[in-house]
TrEMBL record:
Originating organism: Chimaeribacter arupi
Family: Belongs to the CmpA/NrtA family.
Classification lineage: Bacteria, Pseudomonadati, Pseudomonadota, Gammaproteobacteria, Enterobacterales
Chief place of localization: membrane
Protein's cellular compartments: Endomembrane system
Protein's UniProt keywords contain RNA-binding: no
Membrane-crossing segments per the record: none
Protein name: Nitrate/bicarbonate ABC transporter substrate-binding protein
Length: 417
């Protein structure tokens, strides 16, 4: 099993020694954070350029900058608005971006050399769970399609490849949610439909001009399809996997290795921002108002706020308060870089033959997910850390995923490529 490359930051021994020097009392939060931003723990790089796509789940990165959690840790986050995930990939690899709000599967794909050059990568923390959706065009509704089962019937009556779906990146989360949802309905995502890659901000426009029959993307674009009367929400991603991992704070291995204190400070700042967002409904409303601004999503507040608060409508007359709406912190449960989360994406890469050979699931996850660095950042931010690196999840078909037998799990699907 591959050993994690580095464990920077304040060690337990140094923390206890500092505490003893203060007469055995614990360091106060302000003193602890000051200690982490000075001396040998000072950030090696103070200005950190962090990319983001204009999606609701970029919130922790934006709030860390707007609310100045970054200053608390001696760094300056420079948010960089990007047009699409391919651009984020290229700028991360080239070093134009130091870190990014990025698709979980994109980082894992880069590590394996899928959908881009092979490049050692790092996941510092998870930014959010839930909050994506699969939208279908109004033309499908007119044809009697309202769910996956009726979609299968429609496809069986149509010419092969006549139904087109869009996702946002070949190894990204949206591709995996779309493939899983289609496959559970008996629709082969490569043989029965046509799939294309479209940047998130271009989804609604392409549906408007008839380039696709459906798409899987993050918010606010699913709600936008409803408010623009172009389509409806056929499924939310949390219906596929309640409390699934989504975006991460990703970086390159070489940047993290060369700037361990900066990486830790960045993680701590974004972690505090995530906690602030989830602390109250008022904070979520304020976050939505900030994100709606021109510098970020540049859209009307009502397109963000409802689903940010878990208030859903599907465009077919149904409204509900979602029990698994987008969340950013949940006492650190969201933020922890669970090894099992990363391993799940590897099982889907192998299932769909994106990874031609079976990966060493646990070894790859340990190379990418920087659990030790996260623990140090969590210590600075006074966030509890789970004792186990794996978690147990139940997906829409009742299958249980806990990372204990990834090879068997990957082989368990009857529909694959």
């Amino acid at each position: 099993m591959t050993r994690e490359i580095s464990r920077p930051g304040l060690s337990r021994r140094r923390f206890l020694a500092g505490s003893a020097a203060l007469g055995g009392s614990l360091l106060l939060p302000g003193l602890l954070n000051a200690a982490w931003a000075a001396g040998s723990d000072a950030p090696e790089q103070r200005d950190i350029r962090v990319g983001f796509i204009p999606l609701t789940d970029c919130a922790p990165v934006v709030i860390a900058s707007v609310k100045q959690f970054d200053k608390k840790y001696g760094i300056h986050i420079i948010p960089s608005k990007e047009a699409g995930w391919a651009g984020v990939r290229d700028k991360l690899v080239s070093g134009e971006l130091d870190a990014a709000h990025v698709l979980y599967g994109l980082i894992y794909g880069l590590q394996l050399g899928l959908a881009g050059p092979r490049h050692p990568m790092a996941v510092l923390m998870t930014l959010n769970q839930n909050g994506q959706a699969i939208s279908l065009a109004g033309a499908l509704q007119e044809a009697g399609v309202t769910d996956a089962a009726s979609l299968k019937q429609h496809i069986s009556r149509s010419a092969p490849g006549s139904v087109t779906f869009a996702h946002t990146f070949p190894t990204g989360t949206h591709a995996m949610w779309l493939y899983y949802w289609l496959a559970e309905a008996g629709i082969h995502p490569f043989n029965d439909v046509r799939t294309v890659v479209v940047p998130p901000p271009q989804m609604v426009m392409n549906m408007r001009i008839g380039n696709m029959s459906g798409f899987c993307v993050g918010e606010p674009w699913n709600q936008r399809a409803i408010t623009d009367r172009l389509g409806f929400t056929a499924a939310t991603s949390q219906q596929i996997w309640p409390d699934h991992p989504e975006k991460v704070l990703g970086s390159r291995d070489e940047w993290v290795s060369a700037h361990p204190n900066s990486a830790r400070a960045l993680t701590a700042a974004v972690l505090e921002a995530a906690r602030w967002i989830d602390a109250s409904e008022a904070n979520r409303r304020e976050t939505a108002a900030i994100l709606a601004g021109r510098a970020y999503l540049n859209t009307r507040l009502e397109r963000i706020e409802g689903r940010m608060l878990g208030r859903y409508e599907n465009g077919l007359g149904k409204q509900w308060q979602d029990a698994h709406a987008m969340r950013f912190f949940a006492d650190g449960e969201v933020s922890y870089p669970w090894l099992s989360d990363g391993m799940w994406f590897l099982t889907q890469f192998h299932r769909w033959n994106l990874a031609k050979t079976e990966p060493d699931y646990a070894a790859v996850a340990r190379q990418i997910n920087r659990s030790a660095l996260y623990r140090d950042a969590a210590t600075a931010a006074h966030v509890s850390v789970p004792a186990n690196e794996m978690r147990r999840s139940t997906l829409m078909n009742g299958s249980v995923w806990d990372g204990s037998n990834p090879a068997g799990y990957a082989r368990s699907f009857t529909l694959n490529r």
